[in-house]
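Re: the 245-residue chain
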Amino acid sequence: MHPTKALYRQDAYCKLAPAKVLALTEEGHVVLDQTLFYPTGGGQPGDIGVLTSVGKADTQVINTRNDREVPGQIMHMIEQPCELVVGDEVIMHLNWEVRYRRMRVHTALHLLSVVLPYPVTGGAIGECLTEAKIDGRLDFDIANPDFDKAQLSQQLQAMVNQHANVSNEWISEAELDAQPDLVKTMSVQPPRGAGQVRLVNIDGLDLQPCGGTHLANIGEIGSVRIRKIENKGKINRRVRLVLDA
Protein backbone atom coordinates (compact mmCIF):
# COMPACT_ATOMS: atom_id res chain seq x y z
CA MET A 1 0.00 0.00 0.00
CA HIS A 2 1.26 3.51 -0.84
CA PRO A 3 2.12 6.11 1.82
CA THR A 4 -0.67 8.49 2.78
CA LYS A 5 -0.39 11.86 1.03
CA ALA A 6 0.04 14.39 3.85
CA LEU A 7 -2.01 17.42 2.82
CA TYR A 8 -1.29 19.18 6.12
CA ARG A 9 2.33 19.58 5.01
CA GLN A 10 1.26 21.44 1.88
CA ASP A 11 -1.29 23.69 3.59
CA ALA A 12 -1.74 23.66 7.37
CA TYR A 13 -4.79 25.95 6.98
CA CYS A 14 -6.81 23.55 4.80
CA LYS A 15 -9.93 22.46 6.71
CA LEU A 16 -11.89 20.46 4.13
CA ALA A 17 -10.75 18.01 1.44
CA PRO A 18 -11.83 14.78 -0.32
CA ALA A 19 -10.22 11.39 0.21
CA LYS A 20 -10.76 7.73 -0.64
CA VAL A 21 -10.89 4.83 1.81
CA LEU A 22 -8.05 2.42 1.02
CA ALA A 23 -8.36 0.05 3.96
CA LEU A 24 -9.99 -0.64 7.31
CA THR A 25 -7.75 -2.41 9.81
CA GLU A 26 -8.68 -5.20 12.20
CA GLU A 27 -8.61 -2.60 14.97
CA GLY A 28 -11.18 -0.56 13.06
CA HIS A 29 -8.82 2.22 11.95
CA VAL A 30 -9.33 3.87 8.55
CA VAL A 31 -6.55 4.34 5.98
CA LEU A 32 -7.11 7.06 3.38
CA ASP A 33 -5.21 7.88 0.20
CA GLN A 34 -4.58 11.38 1.53
CA THR A 35 -5.28 13.23 4.76
CA LEU A 36 -5.66 16.62 6.41
CA PHE A 37 -5.17 15.05 9.83
CA TYR A 38 -1.77 15.44 11.49
CA PRO A 39 -0.68 12.17 13.17
CA THR A 40 0.55 12.17 16.77
CA GLY A 41 4.27 12.88 16.85
CA GLY A 42 6.97 15.27 18.01
CA GLY A 43 4.95 16.21 21.07
CA GLN A 44 1.96 17.34 18.98
CA PRO A 45 -1.30 15.38 19.45
CA GLY A 46 -3.08 13.81 16.51
CA ASP A 47 -5.84 15.75 14.80
CA ILE A 48 -9.54 15.03 15.20
CA GLY A 49 -12.57 15.69 13.02
CA VAL A 50 -15.25 14.02 10.91
CA LEU A 51 -15.42 11.93 7.73
CA THR A 52 -18.64 12.27 5.73
CA SER A 53 -19.82 10.08 2.87
CA VAL A 54 -23.05 10.30 0.88
CA GLY A 55 -25.77 8.06 2.30
CA LYS A 56 -23.76 7.04 5.36
CA ALA A 57 -23.58 8.16 8.96
CA ASP A 58 -20.79 10.59 9.84
CA THR A 59 -17.57 8.96 11.07
CA GLN A 60 -15.85 10.65 14.01
CA VAL A 61 -12.03 10.72 13.89
CA ILE A 62 -10.92 10.70 17.53
CA ASN A 63 -7.15 10.48 16.98
CA THR A 64 -4.60 10.12 14.20
CA ARG A 65 -1.25 8.34 14.28
CA ASN A 66 1.43 6.88 12.04
CA ASP A 67 1.22 3.20 11.21
CA ARG A 68 3.84 1.33 13.22
CA GLU A 69 4.45 -1.21 10.46
CA VAL A 70 4.01 0.68 7.17
CA PRO A 71 6.25 3.75 6.87
CA GLY A 72 4.39 6.82 5.68
CA GLN A 73 0.94 5.35 6.24
CA ILE A 74 -1.39 7.29 8.53
CA MET A 75 -4.08 5.65 10.65
CA HIS A 76 -7.36 7.41 11.49
CA MET A 77 -8.73 6.11 14.78
CA ILE A 78 -12.51 6.32 14.66
CA GLU A 79 -15.56 5.84 16.84
CA GLN A 80 -17.46 2.63 16.24
CA PRO A 81 -19.70 1.54 14.61
CA CYS A 82 -18.43 2.70 11.24
CA GLU A 83 -20.38 2.33 7.98
CA LEU A 84 -17.44 3.06 5.67
CA VAL A 85 -16.06 0.40 3.34
CA VAL A 86 -13.01 0.22 1.09
CA GLY A 87 -13.49 2.39 -1.98
CA ASP A 88 -15.81 4.92 -0.35
CA GLU A 89 -15.29 8.56 -1.26
CA VAL A 90 -15.30 10.79 1.82
CA ILE A 91 -14.97 14.44 2.72
CA MET A 92 -12.58 15.18 5.56
CA HIS A 93 -13.73 17.86 7.99
CA LEU A 94 -10.85 18.91 10.24
CA ASN A 95 -11.66 20.16 13.74
CA TRP A 96 -10.09 23.52 12.98
CA GLU A 97 -10.55 25.10 16.40
CA VAL A 98 -8.44 22.39 18.05
CA ARG A 99 -5.84 22.31 15.26
CA TYR A 100 -5.42 26.09 15.19
CA ARG A 101 -4.81 26.30 18.94
CA ARG A 102 -2.16 23.61 18.60
CA MET A 103 -0.54 25.45 15.67
CA ARG A 104 -0.35 28.60 17.78
CA VAL A 105 1.24 26.77 20.71
CA HIS A 106 3.61 24.78 18.50
CA THR A 107 4.88 27.93 16.81
CA ALA A 108 5.22 29.64 20.20
CA LEU A 109 7.39 26.73 21.39
CA HIS A 110 9.76 27.38 18.49
CA LEU A 111 10.12 30.94 19.79
CA LEU A 112 10.66 29.70 23.33
CA SER A 113 13.64 27.72 22.05
CA VAL A 114 15.04 31.04 20.79
CA VAL A 115 14.42 32.90 24.05
CA LEU A 116 16.10 30.00 25.90
CA PRO A 117 18.94 28.83 23.60
CA TYR A 118 19.70 25.59 25.43
CA PRO A 119 19.51 21.93 24.34
CA VAL A 120 15.88 20.76 24.30
CA THR A 121 15.33 17.36 25.95
CA GLY A 122 11.58 17.06 25.42
CA GLY A 123 8.37 18.88 24.65
CA ALA A 124 4.61 18.52 24.30
CA ILE A 125 1.37 20.34 23.53
CA GLY A 126 -1.59 19.71 25.80
CA GLU A 127 -4.50 21.11 27.72
CA CYS A 128 -3.76 23.30 30.73
CA LEU A 129 -6.28 21.79 33.13
CA THR A 130 -5.90 24.41 35.86
CA GLU A 131 -6.75 27.29 33.53
CA ALA A 132 -8.91 25.53 30.91
CA LYS A 133 -6.55 26.76 28.20
CA ILE A 134 -4.16 25.05 25.84
CA ASP A 135 -0.52 25.09 26.88
CA GLY A 136 2.81 23.70 25.77
CA ARG A 137 6.11 22.92 27.38
CA LEU A 138 9.75 22.38 26.55
CA ASP A 139 12.32 20.65 28.72
CA PHE A 140 15.79 22.20 28.68
CA ASP A 141 19.20 20.91 29.67
CA ILE A 142 20.33 23.83 31.87
CA ALA A 143 22.99 23.51 34.55
CA ASN A 144 22.41 26.72 36.50
CA PRO A 145 19.03 28.32 35.73
CA ASP A 146 18.15 31.74 37.06
CA PHE A 147 14.97 32.75 35.26
CA ASP A 148 12.20 35.19 35.96
CA LYS A 149 8.80 34.21 34.54
CA ALA A 150 7.73 37.79 33.94
CA GLN A 151 10.95 38.67 32.11
CA LEU A 152 10.78 35.55 29.94
CA SER A 153 7.14 36.30 29.16
CA GLN A 154 8.05 39.81 28.06
CA GLN A 155 10.82 38.52 25.82
CA LEU A 156 8.51 35.93 24.27
CA GLN A 157 5.69 38.42 23.70
CA ALA A 158 8.08 40.97 22.20
CA MET A 159 9.17 38.34 19.70
CA VAL A 160 5.55 37.50 18.83
CA ASN A 161 4.88 41.19 18.28
CA GLN A 162 7.44 41.26 15.46
CA HIS A 163 4.85 39.49 13.27
CA ALA A 164 7.52 37.52 11.41
CA ASN A 165 6.43 35.24 8.58
CA VAL A 166 6.84 31.48 8.83
CA SER A 167 7.83 29.42 5.79
CA ASN A 168 9.06 25.95 4.92
CA GLU A 169 12.06 24.81 2.94
CA TRP A 170 13.51 21.40 2.24
CA ILE A 171 17.05 20.09 2.45
CA SER A 172 18.48 16.64 1.93
CA GLU A 173 19.21 14.37 4.87
CA ALA A 174 22.89 14.62 3.97
CA GLU A 175 22.70 18.43 4.17
CA LEU A 176 21.09 18.17 7.60
CA ASP A 177 23.80 15.78 8.77
CA ALA A 178 26.36 18.39 7.70
CA GLN A 179 24.58 21.03 9.83
CA PRO A 180 23.85 19.25 13.15
CA ASP A 181 23.40 22.60 14.95
CA LEU A 182 20.03 23.00 13.20
CA VAL A 183 18.59 20.24 15.39
CA LYS A 184 17.68 21.64 18.81
CA THR A 185 15.83 18.65 20.21
CA MET A 186 17.87 15.90 21.82
CA SER A 187 14.96 13.49 22.40
CA VAL A 188 12.97 13.86 19.15
CA GLN A 189 14.72 13.74 15.82
CA PRO A 190 13.21 15.31 12.68
CA PRO A 191 11.22 12.98 10.39
CA ARG A 192 13.49 11.08 8.03
CA GLY A 193 13.19 8.32 5.47
CA ALA A 194 12.05 10.23 2.38
CA GLY A 195 15.50 11.60 1.55
CA GLN A 196 14.45 15.15 2.47
CA VAL A 197 13.87 17.00 5.72
CA ARG A 198 11.58 20.01 6.15
CA LEU A 199 12.98 23.13 7.79
CA VAL A 200 10.63 25.61 9.45
CA ASN A 201 11.92 29.14 8.98
CA ILE A 202 10.65 31.97 11.22
CA ASP A 203 11.98 34.94 9.31
CA GLY A 204 14.99 36.42 11.06
CA LEU A 205 14.41 34.49 14.27
CA ASP A 206 14.63 30.72 13.95
CA LEU A 207 15.41 27.88 11.56
CA GLN A 208 15.04 24.24 12.57
CA PRO A 209 13.75 20.92 11.21
CA CYS A 210 10.20 20.03 12.26
CA GLY A 211 7.36 17.88 10.95
CA GLY A 212 4.51 19.61 12.82
CA THR A 213 1.96 22.22 11.78
CA HIS A 214 2.75 25.92 12.16
CA LEU A 215 1.28 29.35 11.65
CA ALA A 216 1.96 31.48 8.58
CA ASN A 217 2.85 34.46 10.79
CA ILE A 218 3.88 34.45 14.44
CA GLY A 219 1.58 37.39 15.17
CA GLU A 220 -1.28 34.85 15.12
CA ILE A 221 0.05 33.42 18.39
CA GLY A 222 -1.54 36.37 20.19
CA SER A 223 -1.06 36.80 23.93
CA VAL A 224 1.36 34.28 25.41
CA ARG A 225 3.17 34.00 28.72
CA ILE A 226 5.31 31.64 30.77
CA ARG A 227 3.02 29.82 33.17
CA LYS A 228 5.44 27.73 35.18
CA ILE A 229 9.08 26.68 35.47
CA GLU A 230 9.70 23.28 37.07
CA ASN A 231 12.76 21.32 38.17
CA LYS A 232 12.65 17.86 36.57
CA GLY A 233 16.13 16.66 37.45
CA LYS A 234 19.58 17.92 38.32
CA ILE A 235 19.93 19.94 35.13
CA ASN A 236 16.51 19.49 33.52
CA ARG A 237 14.10 22.44 33.62
CA ARG A 238 10.54 22.27 32.29
CA VAL A 239 9.19 25.58 31.03
CA ARG A 240 5.45 25.83 30.38
CA LEU A 241 3.78 28.52 28.30
CA VAL A 242 0.11 29.27 27.88
CA LEU A 243 -2.01 31.24 25.41
CA ASP A 244 -4.24 33.78 27.12
CA ALA A 245 -6.87 33.92 24.38
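DSSP finds four helices and 15 strands in the chain.
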